[in-house]
Amino acid sequence: xxxxxxxxxxxxxxxxxxxxxxxxxxxxxxxxxxxxxxxxxxxxxxxxxxxxxxxxxxxxxxxxxxxxxxxxxxxxxxxxxxxxxxxxxxxxxxxxxxxxxxxxxxxxxxxxxxxxxxxxxxxxxxxxxxxxxxxxxxxxxxxxxxxxxxxxxxxxxxxxxxxxxxxxxxxxxxxxxxxxxxxxxxxxxxxxxxxxxxxxxxxxxxxxxxxxxxxxxxxxxxxxxxxxxxxxxxxxxxxxxxxxxxxxxxxxxxxxxxxxxxxxxxxxxxxxxxxxxxxxxxxxxxxxxxxxxxxxxxxxxxxxxxxxxxxxxxxxxxxxxxxxxxxxxxxxxxxxxxxxxxxxxxxxxxxxxxxxxxxxxxxxxxxxxxxxxxxxxxxxxxxxxxxxxxxxxxxxxxxxxxxxxxxxxxxxxxxxxxxxxxxxxxxxxxxxxxxxxxxxxxxxxxxxxxxxxxxxxxxxxxxxxxxxxxxxxxxxxxxxxxxxxxxxxxxxxxxxxxxxxxxxxxxxxxxxxxxxxxxxxxxxxxxxxxxxxxxxxxxxxxxxx
Length: 545
Known about the structure:
Layout: H1 2-15, E1 20-24, H2 38-43, E2 51-55, E3 59-63, H3 68-75, E4 80-83, H4 89-92, E5 97-100, H5 107-114, E6 119-122, H6 127-131, E7 143-144, H7 147-150, H8 154-167, E8 172-175, H9 178-185, E9 187-188, E10 201-205, E11 210-213, H10 220-224, E12 233-234, H11 239-245, E13 250-253, H12 260-267, E14 271-274, H13 278-284, H14 288-314, H15 322-334, E15 339-342, E16 347-350, E17 374-379, E18 381-383, E19 386-387, E20 390-395, H16 401-418, H17 428-440, E21 451-452, E22 466-467, E23 480-483, E24 486-489, E25 493-496, E26 499-506, E27 509-514, H18 532-544
């Protein structure tokens, strides 16, 4: 099937007199978990980040370190898999003309990936859409989020953003990321499989006038709720007409999520100011109400996960597969009255499958969980007032000392992050070093960040803050992050311990407070490698659970 799709794309490439075609993971809204997954359609690769290039005789798939094993397994027969942080596409390919869809690329992406080594040609149609038409899904309306959960009204949020527009001496701000539209207007939607995202764009003028660019069928509830007036709703196909009607000179766009197509429409009339959408920073700092409800969501989630861990460690059922187990976990979550759906596809990997960082069990890969295996389970839920994400690594029989020692070094890194004095270590880059140092002493490491930002009843991965080798964003009170060091032995096992934490001020001292409440596997710990403070931390954590 994939082979045939590639053949059709190649025919179209030939007819268009270009050398190749670029297919990114993201959709028009640059969402991580999009309903429309053109990259999977053309390559069979299911990871959350990647870029494919179909040439007349060769295909390339560029992925990051999390996905090299997975990409090789899923797409390696038809694509040459390359780690993108080692070799950017512009360095691998030279002197070619490549076609692309300007509605799913930003100028920033193009500049980073391709530089000036290739000639890029924007096309009016998406070649993948021409060969594979997914049945249109049922229209799901946007809905309002209670102010009780959000903690701040959309009117107050808009006032904060208007101050920033005026400070930048701009006339308009174009909000292109659905999660930022969701945050500022206190609305949510059902456009993505794992996030309550409303796929739309918002335009805010310095005088407070707003326009929501979205399908009209989706916004009827919002008009009834008086979030928007009828004349403030603009159909996406009428965006150019709207821009031509507007008065003013300067437009703020975020080149992380504003497509080349929309940027060119705005540029035809306005001077563009490129800067990060201020909503990212504003929504990263959760207010007391958001923290309160996130704690509540984690208690409900922790109850489901603790029941699951007890069940899997004590069940007498034989020949359980990865899919059986992830379905059982979902059943435990569904017992919670506020649970909605998973915040991402569950990663349930036993033995060698656990070594694939972002593994997804399928009919082809599904393994029976054996007694001697190490089992890694990374899962999360969307609740009516919160988002969760948690990883636990467990065993069923006594493990080798070498394995327990590595698990304990991962645990020491996890505890080092959790007990960080944030007044001293002020950004993710500094904290990332603390997480890795115990593994690094033995020449070991992991090919992913130590932690990502998390949204409030929003995306499970949400910046700008993170704990990684490169992130220098200042950590502030109210931010939520994951704490997830790990280690992966290809062909054998994967280890990861993940909690969500939030930043709390305690007598002028900024510190992490755990949100996640679920036991950590004691049967994998080499207690002789833990110091007194680490043992004390573990005891208090489990007491709290």
